[in-house]
Each structure stands twice: as structure tokens, then as C-alpha cells.
From TrEMBL, chain B:
Keyword Ion transport recorded: no
Gene source species: Microbulbifer elongatus
Principal cellular location given in the protein's record: cytoplasm
Keyword terms of this UniProt record: Cytoplasm
Protein name: Chemotaxis protein CheW
Length: 722, 165
């Protein structure tokens, strides 16, 4: 027995895609000269969703799509003249459909008030524009459908009763299943039984004919089945109606759909094969499936994990062969080098599975820009570039919020009103450019507008008021960075000045959390460009391995600026224990990794160690480490999966020898360092109280008492900063 | 590294009988529900985590999964924690997490009936009563039955971040 719920996910995904497609077409549609192909596409999307919603018993969704579909159909036939405000209604309906879909996805009924509201709006629209009450029709459909479903259940029990239970306005169809295997055929027939009653069935593998009595139209039957079969496996033709011919002279259920006057409908319902207009829609649904599969991200992650292990094992074997000193040209070593190449190719191929085009992100902006521009009374043209640039799926989800924020800011505060633009000698329409491109191992995303640009004086004034350290001689770049300061423009005055500071600290933090950084370029009167540089994936990081004592840590290369060996004349003590390192004209706080992370046996004299200049959360530090080991790509592993957040550490990775190495969190390391300083008593505890596990055979029995308070202190500080 | 293929056996065991993995910490014998045990391996390649309690030895790589390693000997202050070739890590699956626990020795797998399980006495300093599900009574042996899930997810183990942190 087929469980209809097995197909829920497919339906949700496909309906979601159809809605996205619908929105795209609605936005692109030229209201003065609508492209019939686009109108058809919009109609088909609504229609397919309606069909699916009917099968799965999602009534609210079915009712809304039915109303929308009717309106769209009239638009398609030219009986409804499109206007901008009508498109607005359609877009609103699409949003509502999305909400309903979400509700069903979470197994709850959609908001009845919202449903009533949107139905009312659509109904009103139909009355005003075409003088027809579509709502009544919808009710009939729903009622008739429910009726026929009951009938189907009845029919399953006693075929004799079914005849009498069939509702008056039904049609008879001959449904032919072509080249459908026995097993699938049974499922399809069961599915058909949900739509009406199956009267007669006969045939073989190649052509199996079923006579179906149903209140639905051909389109609906087809739309329902297209979720479970390929379009070319199905032929539906109307037959003469049973019994109730006297009541409904027309064999097709026009009275239900209330579209008797529509020539298009008549053509569709009478033709034997699906009309050409429907083909592309069914193609995308069916054809897309054969070319790609949907896989849960967790499965892909598991494969990535295993491939990572494979690569490590392979390099371990390499090491063994090298150590054994066997002949370089031996079959073993040539086999190993082949394995190495394949393993790396495999790793690359698997990683690419997680990649999705930026279109996924960009496609939501036309709507946002349209709505916001309308609200703000601005004229804006949105241009997107590099839609096909690929980026890790995990990153696309997380970049949406920061990008939305930047786009909003550009529209709200960057681009001027048409009048202001004209006065400034620019075109009335402002341009907003969203672009994505690959740049080395990174992806570069730009949000660029040709608006008024940032106002240097006002930002400086505001920064001064906020107590930030500024000077008149600061470079423009440094001034623009000021708007990323936390709480920079939460004060009301700034929103009418530049306003770009609203929540910009959050944008910056989010992007830095993804291992990226943000730059701003702005010219007064000529607009602003915000540049986001992100790693291509969250799963792989360009890492710099550093040694501290006998431990190895990994630093994200994106945070590393340079490294140098401090000279004693460049070291300046400050406030007792603090040390500053002079690098060219800057004084950077010196932060020793061994002190922050209690590593024993590390180099303590800064002039003997290496200072790695890093930046994190807008500040620069000099990290003291013993040695730079090298740069390599590492697979990022979450520590919190099985453990907890560790102060100063962002994640972990596995090195070539199979051991775990921790990835340093630069900004957090600084916080940890500070908190240890304030906890003076703890700081003075000799390092030996934290024995290294790397020393096998080391005994320690009663240290928990000293370690516990430290843990708590760190946690508290973290809580404050979070 | 070796696997204990005992998880399957349980399904055939009588409903009243439960199987436990018995291990020793110093001279004492403890037991945990075998269904929580994923595998048993040697103590190797543990990376220290700074500022963690001393009984958390660090994290280790378990076929690509980063697993925290807890030394119960230090936690219970029972014996000298010696790490050598014989040191055993029991990898357990609790609350959708994987954690390794270091013990001195794994001895065997025991099936205990309800009659053999006595309530724990009303005391306990290093191991609070909350984490003891009972005492296993076997002729000349006494097994302390540890509720490993409760113990490892407890606040004092600091393995799981507390809410609001």
C-alpha cells in the first residue's frame, strides 16, 4: 500500500520551487505588454500546486491556488488587463501560499484568518475586474472533491454503492498508462481511486486502460499524477458521462470550474494528449528529477568526512613507505601516488556536491528591492552579476541576512529620491548592483550603489560623540570602518545622516564568523560599494599551523596579515604586564598563545618567539607562537557536536598524522587573554598545574579543585561578551 | 583498538535481565549499561584542551569525529591515572553525543537480573548518589552500576554547555 505521505517532501520542495519561479516571472512581467509565455508559466505554476494540494488534502492551499489560477487564466486569455497593483496582489498571494506551504510542512493548519483575507482579496478582484465570483466556484470544487473522495472510499468497499454515491457533476475519463510496470501501476491506480472511482481496468504492460469517474478536469488529474509519474506515460481522454448526462449535458466538469466560455479550456479538456502549453511545466518537474537527486546535507557531510579520513590514511601510508626506505620506483609507491591523486580528486568532487549557485541568494532580492523601492518612493534598477558563481550551501544560508541588510541600507540611505538625483545631475533611476565572483580561493560579493555615498564629516562627528578614537587625518578607509563599531548608529540622529551604521556591526560579525571580511569603498556623491570576501566553503579552511610548546594549533589564514620576529627595541611595556609591539607605525598588543591556553614548555621570551600579526573583529594583535609550521587546507570539525564551546577555540581539525588540532579563534583568544589578566590570582598559578596530556604516563590525581573555578570564570566572561 | 560485539546479544536477553559492561577503576569495579557503549579502544593521540577541568583529558579523533575524552579515575579520585599501552577508552553514546571515558581495565560483560541489583547506600562523596543506579551483587564481587548518561550530561562534568552560556 502506498503511503501518500511519502510524497509530501517531494511536493513541498517542488511547490516551493514553483512558487519561486512564479515570483520571478511576476517580477519580470511587463504589465503593458505581458509575454504570453510568462503568463502561461505563472498559470502553470499555480495550477500544478493546486493539483498537488488537492491530492494531499491541503485544502487552504488548494482553495487559494484555485482562486489565483482563475484570475491568472483570465489574464492569460486577455480578459483581465494587468496592472502594477494587480501584480502586487499576485505577489502577496504568492507569499501567502508560501506561508501555507510552510504550515503544512510543519504539519499544522495554515492561519484561517490569512486564508479568509487572501480569498476575500482575490474574490473582490475577480468581481471588480471580470465581474465573476470565483469564490463560489472554489467552494463547489472543494465540496465536490470531498464528496468524490468519500465516494472513492465507498467504492473501494462496495462497488455497487459507488455508482449512486458519485456526485452529479462528474466526468468519465479513459486514463491510459503507457509502459508502466505492474508494481507502479497498482500505485497509480490507487492514486486514481483517490480522485474518483475506478470503474474498469484492463490492458497490459504497454498500455493499461482505466476508466475513471471523477469530478475533476483532465488538467487536475494530470497535475496530480505528475508528482508520481512521467508525463509521457499518461494519456487521458474524456468518455461519455455516466448516468447524470441529463443533468450536465457537457461531459467535462465545466460547471465546477466555471470556465465554459473559455475556448482554451475546451481545447485542453477535449484533446487526447496533453496540450503543448502544458508540456514545459511537466518537463521541468519530471526531467529535473532524472538529471539530479535531492540528498540530505547530512549524508553529504558524512561522505566528506569519510573522504577526509581516506586522505589522512593515504598520507599516513605515504609516510610509512617513505620511512621504510623502499625503492622509489617500486610498484607500492607508484600505487600510492595514484591513490593519492584519486583521493584528492575524490575530495574535490565531493566538496563540489555542497556547492550551489549564488542565484539561490540573489533570486530573493528583486522582490525585496521592488517592495522597498515602492515604499520609499524611489526608482531603482537592480542588476545582478555572477549568478552562477558557486558557493557552499551552508554559506548561502548565512550570507542572506547580511546581504539583505546591506541592500536595505543602500536603498534606504544610499540611493537618493528621484528628485534629489535629478537635482544632482544624475538619472532618476538609481542603480543597485549585486555581484559575485571567484577570487582565488575566495568568493567576492559586492553590493554597489550609485547613491550619495557616505558622509565623512558626519561619521567622524558621530564617532567622536560615541567616544571612539578618531583623528582628522584618518584615511577614508579607516573612517568607513568606523560604521562597523558596535552601536555606532543606534542613536536616532544618524539614520537621517547616513544611517549605514544600523546594525552594521552585526553584519560584520556575521561575516567574520564565516571566516570572511568586509570592506567599504565610498565616494561622496558617487555611491558606495561594500565588498564581502568569503571563503568558498565552511568545511575547508586555509590554515596556518603554528607550534606552541609541544602543541600544534591552526590559525585561519584569512586572519593572518604577516609574521615577524620581535626585536627587543620594538617592545614597549604598558600598565605592568602588558606588552605592545611596534610594527612600523602601529603599536599592537602582544598576546601570547601559551599564556592564554596554558601551554607548558613554550618560548616565553618574545624576542625568541614569532609574532603573527592577525586581525579579528576590527582590531589587530600580535600573537606570540614558537614556530610557524606551514600552510595547508584543513577540514573544519565542529567541537560542539560532542563537546562544548571552548574559549579561544573556534573549531578543530584532524592533521595528517590523525591527531586533532584546535583552530584558534583570534577575537575570542583576545577576550580570553583579557579575562585571565583580570583574574590575577589565576594568572599567577604556575603552568605546571595544567599538565599536558601529551606527556604519557603523567600522573595527576587531585587537581579538579583548582581547575574548576577557572572554567567558571571564563564562562562568565564569555556570557557577558556574548 | 577492538570492538565489543555485544550489543546484538541484548535483544535476545530476557526482558528482566540487563547487560552491563564491567570495568575497573583502581581496585573498584564499576558497570555501565552495555547499550550505551559504542566501542572500546586504546588511549592514544589526545589533544589537550586549555582551561578545561583536569578530568577532561582533551579531544581525540574517532574516524573523523572529534570526541572528548574524560578520565573517570581523576573524576572519582580513585587511583593514579597512568596512561600506558593497557589504558582503555570506552566510547559511549549518550544524549546524541559520543564521549570517550578512560578506565583502568575492562573486565567482562555481565547479565544481571533484577534480584541481583540492590539500591545504592545513602552516601557517596566523590560519586553522588544521583549517578548510581544501584549495586550489582555477585557472590564475591560488588559492581557499582553507574548511570553514565546522567553522569556525563551533568553540570559538574562540564561536557555539555549550560543553557544561557
Amino acid at each position: 500500500m502506498m503511503d501518500i505521505t511519502d510524497f509530501y517532501d517531494t511536493f513541498f520542495e517542488e511547490a516551493g520551487e514553483l512558487l519561486t519561479e512564479m515570483e520571478q516571472h511576476l517580477l519580470e512581467l511587463d504589465v503593458d505588454a505581458p509575454d504570453p509565455e510568462q503568463l502561461n508559466a505563472i498559470f502553470r505554476a499555480a495550477h500544478s500546486i493546486k493539483g498537488g494540494a488537492g491530492t494531499f488534502g491541503f485544502e487552504a492551499l488548494q482553495r487559494t491556488t484555485h482562486l489565483l489560477e482563475n484570475l491568472l487564466d483570465h489574464a492569460r486569455c486577455g480578459q483581465l488587463t494587468l496592472r502594477r497593483d494587480l501584480i502586487d496582489v499576485f505577489l502577496e498571494t504568492k507569499d501567502m501560499l508560501n506561508d501555507q506551504l510552510d504550515a503544512y510542512r510543519q504539519s499544522v493548519e495554515p492561519d484561517p484568518e490569512a486564508l479568509e483575507y487572501i480569498c476575500q482579496v482575490l474574490r473582490q478582484l475577480a468581481l471588480e475586474e471580470i465581474g465573476e465570483d470565483v469564490e463560489g466556484a472554489a467552494e463547489t470544487t472543494v465540496a465536490a472533491k470531498t464528496g468524490s473522495e468519500d465516494a472513492a472510499i465507498e467504492a473501494a468497499k462496495t462497488p455497487a454503492q459507488a455508482e449512486t454515491a458519485v456526485p452529479a457533476d462528474t466526468g468519465r475519463y479513459q486514463v491510459a498508462l503507457l509502459k508502466v510496470a505492474e508494481k507502479d501501476r497498482r500505485l497509480l491506480i490507487e492514486e486514481l481511486a483517490h480522485l474518483g472511482s475506478v470503474e474498469n481496468e484492463s490492458g497490459d504492460e504497454n498500455r493499461y486502460e482505466v476508466v475513471l469517474v471523477s469530478s475533476l478536469g483532465i488538467d487536475d488529474i494530470e497535475a496530480v499524477l505528475c508528482f508520481v509519474t512521467e508525463p509521457d506515460q499518461l494519456e487521458i481522454a474524456p468518455l461519455a458521462a455516466v448516468g447524470p448526462e441529463e443533468k450536465t449535458p457537457n461531459p467535462v466538469p465545466d460547471s465546477v470550474l466555471k470556465e465554459p466560455e473559455k475556448p482554451g479550456a475546451a481545447r485542453q479538456e477535449q484533446s487526447v494528449t496533453p496540450p503543448a502549453a502544458r508540456k514545459p511545466a511537466t518537463k521541468t518537474a519530471g526531467g529535473g528529477e532524472s538529471a539530479s537527486i535531492r540528498v540530505p546535507v547530512s549524508k553529504v557531510d558524512q561522505i566528506i568526512n569519510l573522504v577526509g579520513e581516506l586522505v589522512i590514511t593515504q598520507s599516513m601510508l605515504d609516510q610509512v613507505v617513505e620511512d621504510s626506505g623502499s625503492d622509489r620506483d617500486s610498484k607500492l609507491s607508484s600505487g600510492l601516488s595514484l591513490l593519492s591523486r584519486t583521493a584528492r580528486d575524490l575530495q574535490e568532487a565531493v566538496m563540489s556536491v555542497r556547492m550551489v549557485p549564488m542565484d539561490y541568494v540573489f533570486s530573493r532580492f528583486p522582490r525585496l528591492v521592488r517592495d522597498l523601492a515602492g515604499k520609499l518612493g524611489k526608482e531603482i534598477e537592480l542588476i545582478t552579476e555572477g549568478k552562477s558563481t558557486e558557493l557552499d550551501k551552508g554559506l548561502t544560508e548565512r550570507i542572506i541576512d547580511p546581504l539583505t541588510h546591506l541592500v536595505r541600507n543602500s536603498l534606504d540611505h544610499g540611493i537618493e529620491s528621484p528628485e534629489q538625483r535629478e537635482a544632482a545631475g544624475k538619472s532618476r533611476t538609481g542603480n543597485l548592483l549585486l555581484s559575485a565572483q571567484h577570487q582565488g580561493g575566495n568568493i567576492l560579493i559586492e553590493v554597489s550603489d550609485d547613491g550619495g555615498g557616505l558622509n565623512r564629516e558626519k561619521i567622524l562627528a558621530k564617532a567622536a560623540a560615541n567616544g571612539l578614537s578618531i583623528s582628522e587625518s584618518m584615511s577614508d578607509e579607516d573612517v568607513w570602518q568606523l560604521i562597523f563599531a558596535p552601536g555606532f548608529s543606534t542613536a536616532a540622529e544618524v539614520s537621517d545622516v547616513s544611517g549605514r551604521g544600523v546594525g552594521m556591526d552585526v553584519v560584520k560579525r556575521n561575516i567574520e564568523a564565516m571566516g570572511g571580511h568586509v570592506e567599504i569603498d565610498s565616494r561622496p556623491g558617487n555611491g558606495t560599494t561594500t565588498r564581502i570576501v568569503l571563503p568558498l566553503t565552511l568545511a575547508i579552511l586555509d590554515g596556518m599551523s603554528v607550534r606552541v610548546g609541544s602543541e600544534t594549533f591552526v590559525l585561519p589564514v584569512s586572519g593572518v596579515i604577516e609574521s615577524l620576529q620581535p626585536r627587543s627595541e620594538d617592545l614597549y611595556p604598558m600598565a605592568g604586564e602588558d606588552l605592545l609591539l611596534k610594527v612600523r607605525d602601529d603599536y599592537l598588543p602582544l598576546l601570547s598563545v601559551h599564556a592564554a591556553l596554558d601551554v607548558i614548555g613554550a618560548v616565553t621570551d618574545p624576542t625568541e618567539a614569532i609574532a603573527v600579526i592577525v586581525h579579528g573583529q576590527g582590531r589587530r594583535y600580535a600573537l606570540l607562537v614558537d614556530e610557524l609550521i606551514g600552510q595547508q587546507q584543513v577540514v573544519v570539525k565542529n567541537l560542539e557536536t560532542n563537546y562544548r564551546k571552548v574559549p579561544g577555540i573556534s573549531a578543530a581539525t584532524i592533521l595528517g598524522d590523525g591527531s586533532v588540532s584546535l583552530i584558534l579563534d583570534i577575537a575570542d583568544l583576545h577576550r580570553l587573554h583579557q579575562s585571565k589578566k583580570t583574574e590575577g590570582a589565576f594568572h599567577s598559578i604556575p603552568q605546571s598545574s595544567h599538565p599536558s596530556t601529551l606527556e604519557s604516563g603523567h600522573t595527576n590525581s587531585t587537581r579538579s579543585a583548582t581547575a574548576q573555578p577557572a572554567q567558571r570564570t571564563v564562562s562568565n566572561v564569555e556570557g557577558v561578551n556574548a | 583498538m577492538s570492538y565489543v560485539g555485544v550489543a546484538e546479544k541484548t535483544s535476545t536477553a530476557l526482558a528482566r535481565d540487563r547487560e552491563f559492561l564491567v570495568f575497573s577503576l583502581g581496585e573498584e569495579e564499576y558497570a555501565i549499561d552495555i547499550l550505551k557503549v559504542q566501542e572500546i579502544r586504546g588511549y592514544d593521540n589526545v589533544t589537550r584542551i586549555a582551561n578545561a577541568p583536569d578530568f577532561i583529558k582533551g579531544v581525540s579523533n574517532l574516524r573523523g569525529v572529534i570526541v572528548p575524552i574524560v578520565d573517570l579515575r581523576i573524576k572519582f579520585r580513585l587511583s593514579d591515572a597512568v596512561y600506558d599501552d593497557q589504558t582503555v577508552v570506552i566510547v559511549v553514546n549518550i544524549a546524541e553525543r559520543v564521549v570517550g571515558i578512560v578506565v583502568d581495565r575492562v573486565s567482562d560483560v555481565m547479565t544481571l537480573s533484577d534480584e541481583q541489583i540492590k539500591p545504592a547506600p545513602e552516601f557517596g562523596v566523590s560519586l553522588p548518589l544521583d549517578y548510581i543506579s544501584g549495586l550489582g551483587n555477585l557472590e564475591h564481587r560488588m559492581l557499582v552500576l553507574v548511570d553514565i548518561e546522567k553522569l556525563l550530561t551533568s553540570r559538574e562534568m562540564a561536557l555539555v554547555a549550560e543553557a544561557g552560556e
